Amino acid sequence: MMQPVLPSHRYLDERSIAYDRRSFSPDTEKGAANVANALGYRERQMIKTLIFEVVDTGEKVLIMVGGDQSARSGLLKKALGSRNIRMADPEAVLAFTGYRIGSIPPFGWQPEGTRTFLDEALMQEEVLGVGTGQWGEEILITPANLVQAANAIVVQLVE
What we know:
With 159 residues, this protein is an alpha/beta fold. 25% of the residues lie in helices and 24% in strands.
């Protein structure tokens, strides 16, 4: 069966950034733990891409943490340089990214100047899994290649 070529794949291919493709059943229940289980990885390795909003300015930022982790409020506020932040609601996420929550790729769609952050502990992993924009398809990529592809700022976001 032919795997679809999605915008996230084209983005990486155009930049000659190495990655592997994996598919899992689109009937898999949503969530990083379920993707990890379906593909045979640890939940930490399956990345959650979260969109946060700096309330004062309206700036939206992309945050990447391990599937079993949550960003710490204080660390996130420090990284973003604002105390007034919140998770963007699903409608705002769709309007900003063009993707529904659940399989947002961490690259290829960002408007110029969008800040993207990756938790520093993830740099120790051999491989990370990120969404492609289509549930049932996953990109496996080294942390260094993910930082390059997403133009990510590596910073402590979890404890």
